[in-house]
Write a structure and sequence with these properties.
The complex is a heterodimer of chains A (407) and B (325). Chain A has 407 residues and is of the alpha+beta class. Chain A has two domains: 245 residues, P-loop containing nucleotide triphosphate hydrolases (Rossmann fold); 83 residues, no CATH class. Helices cover 29% and strands 25% of the residues of chain A. Chain A has eleven helices and 16 strands. In chain A, strands 6-7-8-3-9-10-16-15 form an eight-stranded mixed β-sheet, sandwiched between helices. In chain A, strand 7, helix 6 and strand 8 form a beta-alpha-beta unit. Chain A starts with a strand and ends in a 12-residue tail after the last strand. An eight-stranded mixed β-sheet of chain B has the order 6-7-8-3-9-10-12-11, with helices on both faces. A four-stranded antiparallel β-sheet of chain B has the order 2-1-4-5. In chain B, helix 4 packs across helix 6 and helix 6 packs parallel to helix 7. The relative contact order of chain B is 0.14. The chains are: A alpha+beta (407), B alpha/beta (325). At the A-B interface, helix 6, helix 7, helix 8 and helix 9 of A face helix 7, helix 8 and helix 10 of B.
Chain lengths: 407, 325
């Protein structure tokens, strides 16, 4: 049974430059007692997804809708007060990234762990302290820690304190946001072992947010790969790791230096996109090594690519003239030095064809014709990718029925 | 290769803490009696947990810190206690790539100015020559077209591009040696490798020697010829990357390797062996081998009494452990 189900969850922020689509139509489920790892690069919206689930909203929220079902009940319908009282921390709690450095340096650890119980749930002091000490014990901390101040503890112990805080109300689901990213390898292993033990003994479910695919595999029963605010591939670890479907997942797995392999890691060209002006259709297409005409090339993007090629002198003998964007799919190139448009058209067409493997945008060219003393280039219309598959699914047009297109 | 570029003999750096009119100061023994050689055109990765002294060692070699004891030889010259005036030579030959590309570039300097500054300080070239060197440096880190990037300000660049600028700045004086201190730990997985490749190209094509400081053994494995392992201020093992990883000789190195997961869905079904405890205090390190309180095979009366010295157990593979064979 699923403990958490998200359906079409959206969470956008308002900024001066426009809306940041940090969580863009996300759907997934977390089974009871299972761990879903959400893996992605910085700025892909992993932490925002957690914030959206826990309804930790900033003031500049532009859009927040969708369904979040906890134990079968849509908690999006609850008022803020009800949500705070019944869901946050009791149903779903969270270990925030870097939280161990946010412990109050002036209060003893036991008191800090107990405090939320007294403030939010009107617990008596003795009861709160008893539960705090029980929680601290369950994460393997010795008794003296209760009376210690944070500065007296090591990083690993502080991280255990933060985990104890998340467990104090015995939630069914814990969101772990990079729970070991500031810790040394050895301490990281100890914390992960603890999380494994708690998962087994307490039947906890986790959402494990990380940028590290190797670390994700330490806990994940299912993996979701996020890119530019969207889940692009999700499925059981047994399927995703050995046979990834999405080109981004494949590239990401190849980019990780692996200790027990001599195969050299390969980087992904380009940079992760902006969440305000994300690429059209498939957001990964500008960096994808197998993209084709339908993946989302726009006339503006095409013009920018030509400009970049020209500036770096990689135009292969053809002088791309000034490009003028006419509409989403059409741009007009003007030949330089009074070149005959007919000859120019022919040169362009050949260059697009010859270089389409190295510059994949050229695959999107459908028509090259002489017009108004220049050459009009028309691009193929894009198709937005959708999730394909059942238990293991990914959003890539190459997975459509009828097999692969173009390799 | 084969020609030593940097040789350290018993290099030691202690920091003084506390102390007052009537109290004796204490010493943090950050780097203690480290000897090693880095060849021209090779990358030595120095791996260790935080507080193991790896960054202090890197900074001391560059003479950004004054060594407490021992000797540093650079390109055949002893530079251990060179005075500021004579240090300018070393400042040109040896460079540093810091960790954080967001804080190591002046936000008010465009890229060309950031790259020109070292040339101006060292009085190299006229305006035109400097401009050409800037373009060459940008080209060498694949920021192409260089003219386009030369006029950008740091805030207009991504993290990966900034770090390339930092690498270009380190390259502009044609150094022979570069200390790269966690050069990619702040970057995303997909861009990490591209920066490491650039460093590798610089090493191979221009014969620059690298000391690559990292906590990531997997990165060290793929981008360094040799790996040195540091623990609590000591170099505990050093050797060719393959043999160090396939046949680690020091129990600490063995534990470190065990602790690092590879992407594998089977991982979740078992707990990973991990060492008990924490690295020791560097003010008052354990007697004998500094690793003995956490060591699974430590022998009483030996490991807690006598300090192990680095021994060459396999060709080019050194270990400081009494019990390694």
């Amino acid at each position: 049974m699923a403990i958490l189900e998200l359906e079409h969850l959206n969470f956008h922020y308002r900024t001066l430059r426009g809306a940041v689509r940090a969580v863009d139509d996300i759907s997934f489920e977390v089974e009871k007692g299972h761990t879903l790892a959400i893996v992605g690069e910085s700025g892909c919206g992993k932490t925002s997804t957690a914030a959206a689930i826990l309804r930790l909203l900033p003031k500049n929220v532009a859009r927040y809708d969708g369904i979040v079902r906890l134990d079968g009940k849509n908690v999006m319908e609850l008022s803020d007060e009800e949500f705070r009282k019944t869901v946050r921390w009791q149903g779903i709690s969270m270990v925030f990234q870097g939280a161990m450095n946010a412990l109050n340096p002036t209060a003893r650890v036991g008191k800090q762990v107990a405090e939320p119980l007294q403030i939010h749930f009107d617990a008596e002091k003795e009861e709160a302290m008893a539960r705090a000490s029980e929680s601290l014990r369950s994460v393997g901390l010795p008794e003296y820690v209760e009376r210690s101040y944070p500065h007296e503890l090591s990083g690993g112990m502080k991280q255990r304190v933060v985990i104890a805080m998340a467990l104090i109300l015995r939630p069914g689901l814990v969101i772990l946001d990079e729970p070991t990213s500031a810790l040394d390898v050895m301490t990281q292993t100890n914390i992960i072992n603890l999380l494994k033990r708690l998962k087994k003994e307490e039947e906890l479910s986790y959402i494990f947010i990380t940028h590290d695919l190797a670390l994700a595999s330490e806990l994940a029963d299912e993996v979701g790969i996020m890119y530019a605010g969207q889940i692009r591939e999700i499925g059981p670890s047994e399927y995703v790791y050995p046979s990834p479907k999405h080109p981004y997942t494949k590239a990401l797995l190849k980019s990780v230096p692996i200790l027990r392999s001599s195969e050299s890691p390969i980087s992904i060209p380009g940079v992760p996109p902006d969440l305000i002006e994300s690429p059209f259709a498939c957001r990964f297409h500008p960096r994808c090594s197998v993209s084709f005409e339908e993946c989302g090339w726009s006339a503006q993007e095409f013009a920018d690519i030509l400009e970049r090629l020209r500036a770096s002198g990689e135009d292969g003998g053809v002088r791309w003239g000034e490009a003028e964007v006419e509409d989403d799919l059409t741009l007009v190139l003007k030949p330089e030095d009074g070149m005959d448009p007919v000859t120019y058209r022919k040169a362009l067409e050949e260059a697009f064809h010859e270089q389409e493997e190295s510059t994949r945008a050229f695959k999107a060219v459908t028509k090259v014709e002489v017009r108004d003393g220049g050459v009009a280039v028309t691009l193929h219309e894009a198709t937005t990718p959708y999730m394909i598959g059942e238990a293991h699914r990914a959003a890539c047009l190459l997975l459509r029925k009828g097999g692969e297109k173009d390799g | 290769m084969g020609e030593p570029l940097v040789s350290l003999t018993g290099l030691t750096k202690w920091f003084e803490i506390g102390g007052g009119m009537f109290r004796r100061p204490l010493h943090v023994r950050a780097v203690d009696d480290v000897s090693l050689v880095i060849q021209r055109g090779e990358t030595l990765a120095l791996v260790g947990e935080s507080g193991s002294g790896k960054t202090t060692l890197g900074r001391t070699i560059l003479r950004l810190l004054e060594p407490t004891d021992g000797e540093i030889q650079f390109a055949g010259k002893i530079v251990t206690h060179l005075k500021d005036k004579d240090l300018k030579w070393l400042r040109r030959k040896a460079q540093m790539i810091p960790q954080d590309p967001y804080s190591s570039l002046n936000p008010t300097y465009p890229v060309n100015k950031a790259l020109e500054e070292p040339l101006v300080i060292h009085g190299l070239g006229n305006r035109q020559e400097r401009w050409e060197r800037i373009l060459t440096a940008l080209d060498s880190v694949h920021l192409t077209p260089p003219e386009f990037f030369a006029h950008k300000y740091p805030h207009m660049l991504s993290g990966g591009q900034r770090q390339r600028v930092v690498v270009a700045r380190a390259m502009i004086l044609d150094p022979e040696f570069i200390v790269a201190d966690e050069p990619v730990s702040m970057l995303d997985a997909s861009v990490k490798v591209s920066i490491l490749r650039i460093l590798k190209e610089i090493q191979e094509n221009l014969g620059v020697g690298f000391l690559h400081i990292t906590h990531d053994l997997a990165t060290a494995h793929h981008f360094a010829e040799r790996i040195g392992i540091m623990y609590a201020g000591k170099l505990v093992e050093m050797g060719p990357h393959e043999s160090l990883l396939t046949e680690p000789l020091h129990p600490y190195t063995q534990a470190l390797i065990e602790a690092i997961p590879d992407p594998d869905p089977e991982n979740r079904f078992r707990e990973r062996p991990a060492l008990p405890g924490e690295p020791p205090s560097l003010v008052n390190p354990p007697a004998g081998c500094r690793f003995h309180p956490r060591c699974p095979i430590a022998r009483e009366g030996l490991c807690d009494v006598e300090e192990p010295l680095l021994r060459e157990l396999r060709p080019g593979h050194f270990v400081a452990c009494h019990l390694a064979e």
